[in-house]
Design goal:
Blueprint (H helix, E strand, L loop, with lengths): L4 H12 L3 H23 L8 E5 L5 E3 H15 L4 E6 L6 E2 L6 E9 L10 E9 L7 H4 L8 E7 L3 E6 L4 E6 L5 E6 L9 E3 L10 H12 L10 E2 L5 H11 L2 E4 L12 E2 H14 L3 E3 L16 E2 L1 E4 L1 H10 L3
Parallel strand pairs: 3-5, 11-12, 11-13
Antiparallel strand pairs: 1-2, 3-4, 5-6, 6-7, 7-8, 8-9, 9-10, 13-17, 14-16, 15-17
Helix pairs in contact: 1-2, 2-3
The structure holds 2,5-anhydro-1,6-di-O-phosphono-D-mannitol and magnesium ion.
The site of magnesium ion has 3 residues, from strand 5.
Length: 325
């Protein structure tokens, strides 16, 4: 069980007939995230907290650590000849890197930005796609989540964890004192049923009727139609919510709401929803946008937003059914 990342990757690639370049992309991501972890842990001592004084393409305020993490990832990935191009939540458009590269990497450099300055878990989320033949353009990246060759995240919490899938189950690594990732859990499974939900309740009045109904049922607990009491959590770092669900089940919702008709959700399909949905599905859970299975959505834009419902299969299926009636 205590394999180091290089040992695990070598064995996992050969067992599953996967290309060495895919392993090298994971190594590069792991190394860059080790650097990010170091910066996160330094906090005020490293002068990395606070606002960067800039905005990203989506008009969101960038934190110093958002900018730093983005730079560390771009610099590391650009040096890997297996990476043809990358796309980041913090960049306006894609970045071409190595013409001969086989893979495209998409990432949210630091998810949970509002938690950076308050010492609450944040993370890096990544998605790896095969580059289609021909010239690299935005279209090259617009592949459904089902096509991901790998996805995962690094969670900077009480421990720094690397969690990823190469399409053959999910593996969890813990960063040790020598800054090496060591395998600490293989093939976690998300229970089909759960009694824990995560949603930002402050948006309640903006939700559509099926989500309103679902949450009313959960809040009614054992006195309502669901017949059991539910617990609620909201970290405001999706990466941390997904990790909790991976460890002990639950359902996470960031639903569509009525505030801005141009934004069918807050979260981003390519940098957040797809990579985390692949992790959830690989662990036996389910993910959708309330209507369509997340991994089947045909992307139309790099920064596309989407509604998200993911986690324990029976809860996600139930929310899906509520939207069909
Ligand atoms: P970010 O990528 O700018 O950090 O935004 C995404 C985050 C998610 O991690 C989290 O689920 C959500 O935004 C929290 O939103 P809210 O501010 O509504 O709690
Ligand atoms: Mg994010």
């Amino acid at each position: 069980m205590s394999a180091t990342l290089p040992d695990f990757i070598a064995q996992h690639l050969s067992q599953n007939g996967l290309p060495a370049e895919l392993g090298s992309v994971i190594h590069t991501l792991a190394r860059a995230c080790t650097d990010i972890s170091r910066q996160v842990r330094a906090g005020a001592l490293g002068g990395v907290l606070g606002s960067a004084g800039s905005g990203n393409v989506q008009g969101e305020e960038q934190k110093k650590l958002d900018v730093l993490a983005n730079r560390l990832l771009i610099n590391a990935l650009a040096q890997n000849t297996a990476v043809a191009g990358l796309a980041s939540e913090e960049e306006d458009s894609f970045v071409a890197t190595n013409e001969q590269g086989r893979y495209l990497v998409l990432f949210d450099p630091l998810d949970g930005s509002s938690n950076i300055d308050v010492n609450i878990s944040i993370g890096t989320i990544f998605s790896v796609l095969e580059k289609p033949a021909g010239a690299l353009n935005t279209e090259s990246f617009l592949q459904p989540g089902r096509a991901q060759a790998a996805s995962g995240y690094v969670l900077y919490g009480p421990q720094t964890l690397l969690v990823f899938t190469l399409g053959h189950g999910v593996y969890v690594f813990t960063l040790d004192a020598a800054q090496e990732f060591v395998l600490t859990q293989a093939l976690p499974q998300i229970a089909a049923d759960s009694a824990e939900f995560a949603i930002n309740m402050s948006n309640q009045r903006h939700w559509e009727a099926p989500v309103q109904q679902y949450i009313v049922e959960l809040l009614a607990g054992s006195t309502g139609s669901r017949g059991k009491d539910y617990n609620m959590r909201w970290v405001a770092s999706m990466v941390a919510e997904v990790h909790r669900i991976l460890m002990r089940g639950g359902v996470f919702l960031y639903p569509k709401d009525a505030r801005d008709p141009n934004k069918p959700g807050k979260l981003r399909l390519m940098y957040e929803a797809n990579p985390l949905s692949l992790i959830v599905e690989q662990a036996g859970g389910a993910a959708c946008d309330a209507h369509t299975r997340m991994l089947d959505i045909r992307p139309i834009g790099l920064h596309q937003r989407v509604a998200v419902v993911l986690g324990s299969r029976n809860e996600v299926d139930y929310v899906h059914r509520l939207h069909q009636t």
